[in-house]
Structures are given as structure tokens and as C-alpha cells.
Specification:
With 114 residues, this protein is mostly helical. It has 3 helices and 3 strands, in the order αβαββα. The chain has helices at residues 18-31, 43-56, 89-106, and strands spanning 37-39, 65-69, 83-85. Strands 1-2-3 form a 3-stranded parallel sheet, with helices on one face. Helix 1 packs across helix 2 (43-56). The protein is globular.
Length: 114
């Protein structure tokens, strides 16, 4: 991202609270018009973002692009369409193992953010 001179911005909301995360992301986009893309922790949050964006007058994909993560079935039928990343069980297992090992070394609970 640094090569492209992009600076990531984070909306610090628990990924499992998809409604709150989506609303916080919409408010962030409205306050920061330089933001051109949103990467959501999961597809449900991305889909909820699409709905909240429409209500707030944020145009997707004209104003901001949205990417989800986990490729749930609903992602293929919503409009506008959602770009999403499919993740195999093997990759999920590797990610979870890494998270547990890292947490064990650092003394954090698995899944906790630094």
C-alpha cells in the first residue's frame, strides 16, 4: 500500500456487530471523502454497509467500492454486487492457528486485537 501511496484507515468496531460497524464505516466515508474503498471483515458487514450507504446517499460503487470477506451465499444475489474473498477451510484453520499462537506468545486472548 505504501508503494501506491495509500494510507489505510481503520474503523474500530467489533467485526461481529455488523450493524454498528456498517454505520460507523458510512459515517467515516461521509467525513472523509478521500476514502474510495472499504474492506469489511465479513460479507454480512459489507452487505449491511451497502444498505446503510444507500440510506445515507453514499453511491456504491461510484463514490466508494466495497469488498467483503468470506463469500457467503447472499453476497452473490445482492445489488449492487459485492466483491468478496472466498476462504477455504484450510486457510481458515491456518489463520486461526496463527491467531492462537500469536495470542499465546503475547498473552492476549485468541481473537483479541492488539
Amino acid at each position: 500500500m505504501s508503494e501506491a501511496r495509500l494510507t489505510p484507515h481503520y474503523v474500530d468496531v467489533p467485526y461481529y456487530d455488523h450493524e454498528r460497524a456498517a454505520e460507523a464505516a458510512v459515517q467515516y466515508v461521509l467525513a472523509h471523502p478521500e476514502v474510495t474503498a472499504i474492506f469489511c471483515a465479513n460479507d454480512l458487514t459489507a452487505i449491511t454497509f451497502l444498505q446503510a450507504a444507500r440510506v445515507a446517499g453514499v453511491s456504491v460503487p461510484d463514490q466508494v467500492s466495497v469488498v467483503g470477506f468470506d463469500d457467503i451465499d447472499l453476497a452473490s444475489i445482492i445489488r449492487p454486487g459485492l466483491t468478496t474473498m472466498a476462504v477455504t477451510n484450510r486457510v481458515w484453520a491456518a489463520l486461526r492457528s496463527h491467531s492462537c499462537c500469536t495470542s499465546s506468545i503475547s498473552g492476549r486472548s485468541p481473537g483479541a486485537l492488539p
